[in-house]
């Protein structure tokens, strides 16, 4: 084991020595460290091994030196032979140097003279050079003074910059240059103050010229809009690219084309087109901007300019108190705003960074909110539709103009919907007056036409078609009154007026169609309906007028489909479109017709009440007069003549016939029922205490006349005795008292076959008590007669039985 370990150690030491010999000295450390990491005393054995290796190398070096020693000795011998030749050469070189020094003394003297002349020449050149450096500085400073005197400040600043950076540094060691350098900052401040003063003058001037700039821009926008509309019509193109208005007299469209501004009307073709540059001198802004930029204070200038323009924007946006009174007030307001933003747009594109798109957008958003609030407030004061329409046109031109300069105007077009509502309201108020005037001037009688020309004139104004009337000879009458074609014409006029507002709103045909239909619906359902309702309620409108109103509303209702066709022809939007709004005229005219019918019934009843109030019965008469009362005959005659009006309504049209028959039948039935009720109330009046049999007989004669009137069929169409049934209650009550058939009444009471089924016990009791009191009063001295006593007892018996029936009914 010990021998093996010794062999391994020797082998390891041998490897380490080879590694030390073949490795760089800087990397020996790890190798040596491995020696000390081995077994104890291993380093001693390694040192012994290392010493042995060193001795081996020393022997090899000694062998090498002994091998080359003879060659070294030979070399030394050759060197000793050359030393004699070297000494000889040294002597020759020394002699040659001496002779050369003697020959160069004259050349040295001449060389020193040349050097002195060259120094003088150099000094003269230096002087000239310095003078040449100073002369441009003086010339530039003189030029600077001239530029300041001629107010060429930007050029003066450039000259100062050249002096500071180029010329003065070349001759800065001279006193006069130092004085110049000290004066330059003071001159800069003077230029700065002068340019700022010019800017303030410009800002003041631009306020005066904004109105004119805006007017010019809006006029150009209007000319382009007119031109584009004309081109679109001629080329039958539905959409024409909207131009963007520029400041150089040319127009760039959205598709990149250029159109000159001289393409307007022929009268304006030769007129010079003014731009913002023609109306406003922008040089103070450019000059001041350049000056502050050169001076390194551009940010201060930008902040000042933007702050002042914001203040001016707020002033421009303040409207005059009476702006809403005239269109010129709105025009001036829009011109000032357009002028302001046209100038800002020019500054944005003509300068780099003085104003940014973000700044102009911020100004515009602030202005837009203020403009919308102002227009919303002032337009609400306007009650003239023409003025509202002018305002709408101005807003459209205003929006188109600013949109051409890249400003977002969607909110302005949204505002136009509010203005449209205001416009519709003013139109409705105006048309309400027109309708009232038409109704006041109408004679409420059929339109007479004497000739075919008159007939064609009426038909051209109103879509009336009736084959039966067309076959009739002239002269003839049309069923409606004069107000019908006038109303129809006025509705079309309102549609035209609404269409005017819809122009230039950049809306689709469907949206315009919807606007027109909604406006028409408002006119029919609100304005015309209200006027008709008020007309029907007026006291001076009689039954004849009400009948004519019913006819008129029927014709207007039938004309609604022609109004729909009229709107469709204007907008080219099919009525079958899903979102197409329908006209509500049918309901409007039906409601008006029902109101007129109700008013007819009410007026008939009122007239009947007036006749009833003329009744003057002598309730205590012994016998009747033998004929009906005069007031009742007058009432019946009035009813006959009134229902003849219904009978003579034009019934050649099935609708007319059914309408007139229905109204006449309803009115006749209502009148008969009301007359029957009024006569019944007259008998049962609580203020009437006594009534005689003679009065009952007289009352019976009047009821007979009423029944005769009902049976005479005053209005055709009633079946059987339908109309006479209105008086059945009175008839059975009077028959009961006239026949004095109380036994039958009491015996059959409650039976369906009762002859006096419609007689109420309470009614009979009330009337019988009035007759009972009369019998007592008239038969004070005849109570001793047997018949009278029996009759009185019978009355008392019947009264008791009726009271028991009444009490039974109440319980």
UniProtKB/TrEMBL annotation:
Keyword Ribonucleoprotein in record: no
InterPro entries: EXOC6/Sec15, EXOC6/Sec15_C, EXOC6/Sec15_C_dom1, EXOC6_Sec15_N, EXOC6PINT-1/Sec15/Tip20_C_dom2
Record GO biological process: Golgi to plasma membrane transport; intracellular protein transport; vesicle tethering involved in exocytosis
Domain Exocyst complex component EXOC6/Sec15 N-terminal: 49-218
Pfam families tied to this protein: EXOC6_Sec15_N, Sec15_C
GO terms for cellular component: exocyst; plasma membrane
UniProt keyword list: Exocytosis, Transport
All residue ranges annotated as the Exocyst complex subunit EXOC6/Sec15 C-terminal domain in the record: 412-770
Domain of life: Eukaryota
Purpose of the protein: Component of the exocyst complex involved in the docking of exocytic vesicles with fusion sites on the plasma membrane.
Similarity comment: Belongs to the SEC15 family.
Protein name: Exocyst complex component
Organism: Sander lucioperca (Pike-perch)
């Amino acid at each position: 084991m010990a021998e093996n370990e010794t062999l391994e150690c020797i082998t390891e030491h041998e490897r380490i020595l080879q590694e030390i010999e073949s490795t760089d000295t800087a990397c020996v450390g790890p190798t040596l460290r491995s020696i000390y990491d081995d077994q104890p005393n291993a380093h001693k054995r390694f040192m012994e091994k290392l010493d042995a290796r060193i001795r081996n190398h020393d022997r090899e070096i000694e062998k090498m030196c002994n091998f080359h020693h003879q060659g070294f000795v030979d070399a030394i011998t050759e060197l000793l032979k050359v030393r004699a030749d070297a000494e000889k050469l040294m002597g020759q070189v020394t002699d040659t140097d001496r002779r050369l020094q003697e020959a160069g003394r004259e050349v040295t003297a001449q060389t020193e003279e040349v050097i002195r002349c060259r120094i003088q020449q150099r000094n003269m050149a230096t002087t000239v050079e310095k003078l040449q450096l100073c002369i441009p500085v003086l010339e530039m400073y003189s030029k600077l003074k001239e530029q300041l005197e001629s107010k060429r400040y930007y050029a003066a600043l450039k000259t100062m910059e050249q002096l500071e950076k180029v010329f003065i540094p070349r001759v800065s060691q001279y006193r006069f240059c130092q004085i110049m350098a000290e004066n330059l900052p003071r001159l800069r401040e003077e230029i700065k103050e002068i340019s700022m003063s010019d800017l303030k003058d410009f800002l003041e001037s631009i306020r005066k010229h904004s109105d004119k700039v805006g007017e010019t821009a809006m006029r150009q926008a209007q000319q382009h809009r007119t031109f584009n509309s004309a081109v679109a019509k001629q080329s039958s193109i539905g959409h024409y690219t909207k131009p963007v208005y520029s400041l150089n007299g040319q127009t760039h469209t959205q598709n990149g084309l250029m159109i000159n501004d001289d393409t307007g009307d022929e009268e304006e073709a030769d007129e010079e087109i003014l731009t913002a540059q023609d109306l406003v001198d922008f040089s103070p802004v450019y000059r001041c901007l350049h000056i502050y930029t050169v001076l390194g204070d551009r940010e201060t200038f930008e902040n000042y300019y933007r702050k002042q323009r914001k203040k001016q924007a707020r002033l421009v946006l303040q409207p005059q108190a009476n702006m809403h009174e005239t269109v010129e007030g709105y025009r001036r307001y829009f011109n000032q705003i357009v002028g302001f933003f046209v100038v800002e747009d020019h500054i944005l594109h003509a300068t780099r960074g003085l104003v940014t798109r973000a700044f102009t957008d911020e100004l515009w958003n602030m202005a837009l909110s203020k403009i919308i609030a102002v227009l919303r407030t002032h337009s609400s004061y306007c009650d003239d539709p023409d003025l509202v329409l002018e305002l709408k046109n101005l807003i459209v031109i205003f929006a188109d103009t600013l949109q051409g300069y890249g400003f977002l105007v969607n909110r302005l077009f949204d505002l136009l919907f509010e203005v449209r509502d205001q416009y519709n309201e003013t139109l409705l108020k105006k048309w309400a007056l027109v309708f009232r005037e038409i109704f006041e001037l109408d004679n409420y009688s059929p339109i007479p036409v004497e000739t075919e020309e008159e007939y064609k004139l009426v038909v051209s104004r109103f879509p009336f078609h009736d084959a039966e009337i067309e076959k009739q000879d002239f002269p003839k009458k049309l069923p409606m009154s004069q107000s019908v074609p006038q109303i129809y014409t006025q509705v079309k006029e309102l549609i035209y007026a609404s269409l005017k507002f819809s122009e230039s709103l950049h809306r689709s045909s469907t949206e315009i169609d919807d606007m027109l239909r909604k406006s028409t619906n408002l006119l029919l359902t609100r304005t015309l309906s209200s006027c008709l309702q008020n007309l029907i309620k007026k006291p001076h409108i009689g039954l004849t007028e009400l009948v004519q109103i019913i006819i008129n509303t029927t014709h207007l209702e039938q004309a609604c489909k022609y109004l729909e066709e009229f709107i469709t022809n204007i907008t080219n939007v099919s009525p079958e479109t899903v979102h197409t709004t329908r006209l509500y005229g049918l309901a409007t005219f039906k409601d008006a017709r029902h109101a007129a019918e109700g008013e007819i019934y009410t007026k008939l009843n009122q007239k009947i009440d007036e006749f009833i109030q003329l009744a003057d019965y002598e309730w205590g008469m012994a016998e009747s007069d033998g004929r009906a009362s005069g007031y009742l005959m007058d009432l019946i005659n009035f009813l006959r003549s009134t229902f003849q009006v219904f009978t003579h309504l034009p019934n050649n049209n099935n609708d007319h016939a059914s309408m007139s028959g229905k109204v006449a039948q309803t009115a006749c039935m209502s009148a008969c029922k009301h007359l029957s009720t009024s006569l019944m109330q007259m008998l049962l009046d609580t203020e009437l205490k006594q009534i005689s049999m003679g009065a009952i007989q007289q009352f019976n004669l009047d009821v007979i006349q009423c029944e005769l009137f009902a049976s005479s069929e005053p209005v055709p169409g009633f079946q059987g005795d339908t109309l006479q049934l209105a008086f059945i209650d009175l008839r059975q009550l009077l028959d009961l008292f006239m026949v004095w058939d109380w036994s039958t009444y009491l015996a059959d009471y409650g039976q369906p076959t009762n002859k006096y089924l419609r007689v109420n016990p309470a009614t009979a009791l009330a009337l019988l008590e009035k007759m009972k009191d009369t019998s007592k009063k008239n038969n004070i001295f005849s109570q001793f007669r047997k018949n009278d006593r029996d009759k009185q007892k019978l009355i008392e018996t019947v009264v008791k039985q009726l009271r028991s029936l009444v009490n039974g009914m109440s319980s």
